[in-house]
Write a structure and sequence with these properties.
- The chain is of the alpha/beta class.
- The protein has one domain: TIM Barrel, CATH 3.20.20.150.
- Helices cover about 40% and strands about 15% of the residues.
- It has 10 helices and 8 strands.
- Strands 1-2-3-4-5-6-7-8 form an 8-stranded parallel beta barrel, surrounded by 5 helices.
- Helix 3 runs parallel beside helix 4 and helix 7 runs parallel beside helix 8.
Amino acid sequence: MKYGLHSLVYPNFLDGREEQKFSYLKDLGYDYLELIPYDFDVDFKLLRTKADDHGIKINLGWSLGPEHNLTSEDTKVRQQGVDFLKKLIDLSSILGSEVISGLNYSGCGCLTGKPPTELEIHRSIDSYVEVIDYLGDSETLICLEPSTREDSHMLNTARDALEFISQIDSPKVKLCLDTYQMIREEASIEDVVLATKDDIGYIHASENHRGVIGKGLFNWEFFFYLLDMTGYDSIVTVESFFSSESPTAFRSKTWRSLAFSPEQVASESISFLKSFPKIGV
């Protein structure tokens, strides 16, 4: 098993202290950083060099907003979404990213108050035809994350996502299982993990309160037992939120500090995850 840390653990990961952070994460046992690229004016080639120097690989995360909504009636908005995903693909090439994950099939917060229509689903799938064509022979996976009903009416459960992915019909598109989303929307964690074992491309480890892993209500021991049954041996990324100062604090509803520091989240979370006998061997 390999471990990643989400950049949202820090109020601002790209604050000039990246090398210090990469060194710290590697010492803790992390292999990856999942980066939310708020600023595309960053020197990403230099950032990759810094990460490579410390043995850290950088994956990408993003959730499309209303201006990029792939289910919009407005063809211009849908094209903006496609163009932004292409921009992420270009960035993944620069960074050597293995994964682009997130709510990247509609627009986060774009709710209709009704179940998704066939037209909305087809609009999103049609958009992905162009995205997958642009991806070409890249080894980067796009991993779609089912999200809670507060953020989307499109893909709330793993079953929703599997049906959607089957219609895209590309080996480049996989499922991102997020434990926080699963707690909120699934009836059985066991059923979900076993039913999706052939389609899981990436995992977000997140507590019910979004804080330090192992200090919440999620049954991690059972979850990793299930992963062991499926043979999943790829990346598990700690997706915890620390600060109300984060650019996504409003979207993630982070009104209170969930730990004393980002370092506490990073260190205690991976220490807990590595405590399971079959993890990391």
